[in-house]
Write a structure and sequence with these properties.
Strand content: 25-35%
Shape: globular
CATH class of the largest domain: Alpha Beta
Radius of gyration: 21 Å
CATH superfamily of the largest domain: LarA, N-terminal domain
CATH topology of the largest domain: Rossmann fold
Distance between the termini: 31 Å
Helix content: 25-40%
Largest sheet: 6 strands, parallel
Strand order of the largest sheet: 3-19-15-16-17-18
Number of domains: 2
């Protein structure tokens, strides 16, 4: 019997499984990677040697109003480390500049002050100007033009009305944008709901290029890059993280060039051949990404790449914050996967409903696979979203055996967000 720790909220849950049932145990190599410098040293080194731009302190010279975009409570950006360093770098070039930290929420709920203190530390919350993006407050946004897809681009005026726009984030495989980081700080980060919805339309999500690891010809990525350029992003700092959410590499400089270097690094550690199993067990990487079901198709899509048609996916996600947005919950509970898919497929891009993309991906998965969810959600709630509830991975595995057979081959991907699985065939 083998014991495997599956990331779950701020800790983990144990899976106990006979070794001869395991077809593959897949980890990203990020946990094996040993950085030669500390987290702070990696970040300072990246800022000292930016890709494709002068140093940030040089760019800041003479600038009066500077906006620094950071991520919200659903992302593991190590802002307690990065923000003080970025602020110091900016002020070394422009000591008197008025700096605004803009929290990129996309369509997520507002980040609370308590969450800000946990993310940034008390000193930044108490002494810096912080604005939280609200995608539904139309007066907060400025129209900048039209994106390649035809969508209108509306960006938070705090990101537009400044002399220098800086963003920070982290890079990992992303289930429809290819990779996170870089341009995503703008779209969806600080765009209004209409822009985000159209970028994430049924048509865009359905593209064969809208998947993890793919940037070329990816219509969602192309709109995001265009949006970031139109918004005038002047400098980025992106990091790569291991399973403990520690910085193992940092990349700074030009929006596209620095991001491309980061993507290359992350791909080299995350990408692995997909191994097809009858049962695939995964998690959404624990806190903060497993706070709700809305974030969880990220790992489910990784499991999908390794699960045979008709197979079983076991998804471990605490959902301690519930299902997610109200739009998502309504969509997920409106019928069978076929009925929900049919409803979503009829929605024109310009009329896209908030959060429908996560529903769309879950329906794509649920139409081919049984999904067993290990979470803190009430069992009846889990059933209402067309999934099977389980209290822990062991119970989920026994239920999976009942569906797939006792001789089923099992693929285990403890952190499905960190792995880029290349589907067989």
């Amino acid at each position: 019997m083998k014991t495997i720790k599956i990331p779950y909220y701020t800790s983990s849950k144990e899976l106990h499984i006979e070794e001869d049932r395991i077809k593959a145990l897949i980890y990203a190599r990020t946990d094996e990677y040993q950085a030669e410098k500390s987290e702070e040293e990696l970040i300072r080194d990246a800022l000292a040697h930016p890709v494709g731009t002068p140093r940030l302190c040089e760019l800041a010279k003479g600038k009066k109003r500077i906006t620094l975009i950071t991520s919200d409570h659903t992302r593991a950006v190590p802002s307690r480390i990065t923000l003080p360093i970025l602020l110091s770098e900016i002020r070394s070039g422009s000591p008197e500049a008025e700096i605004t930290i803009l929290i990129a929420t996309g369509l997520h709920r507002r980040t609370t002050e308590e969450e800000q203190r946990r993310m940034f530390g008390d000193a930044i919350v108490d002494h810096e100007k912080i604005v939280v993006n609200d995608a539904y407050k139309d007066d907060d946004f400025v129209h900048l033009g039209t994106l390649p897809s035809g969508a209108e681009l509306w960006v938070n005026r705090v990101a537009v009305d400044c002399d220098l726009l800086v963003t920070e984030g982290f890079i990992e495989p992303h289930f429809f944008a290819g990779f996170s980081g870089g341009r995503k700080s703008i779209l969806p980060g600080v765009c209004n709901a209409a822009t985000v919805n159209e970028n994430h339309s049924y048509r865009a999500i359905s593209s064969p290029y809208s998947n993890a690891g793919t940037l070329e010809h990816n219509p969602i990525h192309e709109d995001m890059v265009c949006a970031a350029r139109m918004a005038g992003v002047g400098f980025i700092l992106n990091v790569a993280l291991n399973g403990e959410k520690k910085v193992i590499a940092a990349f700074a400089g030009d929006l596209e060039e620095a991001h491309a270097e980061g993507v290359s690094f992350v791909r080299s550690l995350a990408q692995c051949p997909g191994v097809t199993g009858d049962i695939v067990i995964t998690s959404n990487g624990g806190y903060p990404l497993d706070q709700n079901l809305y974030q969880s198709p990220k790992a489910a899509a990784t499991a999908e790449a390794c699960c045979r048609d008709g197979g079983v996916i076991i998804l471990c996600a605490s959902c301690a914050d519930g299902i997610g947005g109200s739009y998502f919950e309504k969509q997920m509970t409106m019928g069978t996967p076929d009925e929900i898919e049919a409803f979503l497929s009829k929605i024109p891009p310009r009329e896209s409903i908030p959060e429908q993309w996560c529903t769309q991906i879950f329906m794509r998965i649920l139409r081919k696979h049984t999904v067993i969810l290990v979470s803190e959600l009430d069992p009846e709630t889990v059933k209402s979203v067309n999934m099977i509830p389980a209290a822990d991975p062991d119970e989920a595995l026994q239920k999976a055996y009942e569906i797939a057979g006792r001789d089923a081959e099992v693929v285990i991907i403890p952190d499905g967000v960190a792995v880029l699985a290349v589907k067989e065939g």
